Each structure stands twice: as C-alpha cells, then as structure tokens.
C-alpha cells in the first residue's frame, strides 16, 4: 500500500559502537530508484511510568540532562535491558528511581520520539496502587522525586516548565484517562 514511499536498504555498516548507543549508516534506494545514505541511532527502547495516586497526584522526578545542560521535570523512565520485558522494566525503574511499587499496571501506548534519526521507542504504563519504599538509584543516577496534582501538568507544559516529550505525551494521556474520555 505504501510501497511508493518505502526506502530499501542496500548496504549497512556500524558507524559508531558506543557503550549505550550505536550509530548505523545505511545505503538505501529511494522510491525514485536513486541511492542515498541514512544515519540513525540504534536504541534498545525504554519505558515511561505514569505513577498516579488515588488523590489525583502524580509522582514526578527532577533530573539533570547533560546534552541540554539543565534539570528537567519528568515521569520516571528508563532503558529496557537486553532480554527484559517492558513491563518488568517499568516496575524496576519505578522502584529504583522512586522507591515506589504499584499493584495495578496498565499499558497505555508506544511512542517513537525521534523518528528522523533514531529507532527508539518508549512504552508508557499507568501505575496505580502506589506504596512508598526505599529507592535503589544506580551509582551514576541523581534525581529528586516530588508529587503534584495531575491537573497541574498542562499548565507546566504551557508555561514551558515541562518540555520533555515523553512527559508531555504522558501528561496528555493522563488527562484523557482521568477524565474518562479514553479507556485503557
């Protein structure tokens, strides 16, 4: 159906093999038959947790992000380890980063946050039935956790205080779920 748009890989090489990311350089044939090069980041995928308390508050993080050189407000999230199921990753990341566990988990959606230059995908999960515990941060992980009303998220996005794409999309979904407009 979309064959007139499809690009066909002719050749592929690994341009960079880093600890976390890999950069692929492919030669492709365009729909008009002409060859060109595509470079993109290979990423193992990640999860995003939307931790919702019974009182309508959400659990959030403040974390410094080096490439942008600033602290961001985000939902808990993390990279999927090799062979790890996304839901298991979501449970692990929530516990490690916040100390919380949840009794009720629902898959929300999958997003592709950088389609022009990466194959990364993020699976979003709604977590309810939250219970506080002890955080288990990685040695190189530094972040603060706090709560705020889910109804405050749109205002923080509008004011430019939340710009992280996974958090913006998660807030959008949360608003629709809480209102009952969208069912999971």
Automatic annotation (TrEMBL):
Question: What one GO molecular function would you report for this record?
Answer: hydrolase activity
Pfam families named among the record's database cross-references: NUDIX
Q: Which InterPro entries match?
A: NUDIX_hydrolase-like_dom_sf, NUDIX_hydrolase_CS, NUDIX_hydrolase_dom
Q: Which cofactor does it need?
A: Mg(2+)
List the catalytic activities from the record: GDP-alpha-D-mannose + H2O = alpha-D-mannose 1-phosphate + GMP + 2 H(+)
Q: Does the keyword Hydrolase apply?
A: yes
Q: Which UniProt keywords apply?
A: Hydrolase
Domain (Nudix hydrolase) spans 43-170
Family affiliation: Belongs to the Nudix hydrolase family. NudK subfamily.
PANTHER family (alphabetical)? NUDIX HYDROLASE DOMAIN-CONTAINING PROTEIN, UDP/ADP-SUGAR PYROPHOSPHATASE
Q: By what name is this protein known?
A: GDP-mannose pyrophosphatase
- What species is this protein from? Herminiimonas contaminans
Q: What is the lineage of its organism?
A: Bacteria, Pseudomonadati, Pseudomonadota, Betaproteobacteria, Burkholderiales
């Amino acid at each position: 159906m979309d064959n007139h748009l499809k690009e066909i890989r002719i050749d592929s090489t690994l341009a960079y093999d880093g600890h976390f990311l890999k950069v692929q350089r492919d030669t492709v044939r365009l729909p008009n038959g002409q060859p060109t090069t595509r470079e993109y980041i290979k990423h193992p995928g990640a999860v995003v947790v939307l931790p919702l308390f019974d009182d309508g508050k959400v659990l959030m993080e403040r974390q410094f992000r080096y490439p942008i050189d600033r602290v961001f407000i985000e939902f808990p999230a993390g990279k999927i380890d090799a062979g790890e199921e996304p839901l298991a990753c979501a449970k692990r990341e929530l516990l490690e980063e916040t100390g919380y566990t949840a009794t009720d988990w629902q898959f929300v959606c999958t997003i592709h946050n950088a389609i022009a230059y990466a194959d990364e995908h993020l699976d979003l999960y709604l977590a309810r039935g939250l219970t506080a515990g002890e955080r288990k941060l990685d040695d190189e992980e530094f972040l603060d956790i706090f709560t705020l009303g889910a109804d405050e998220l749109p205002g923080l996005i509008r004011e430019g205080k939340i710009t992280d794409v996974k958090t913006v999309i998660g807030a959008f979904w949360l608003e629709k779920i809480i209102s009952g407009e969208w069912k999971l």
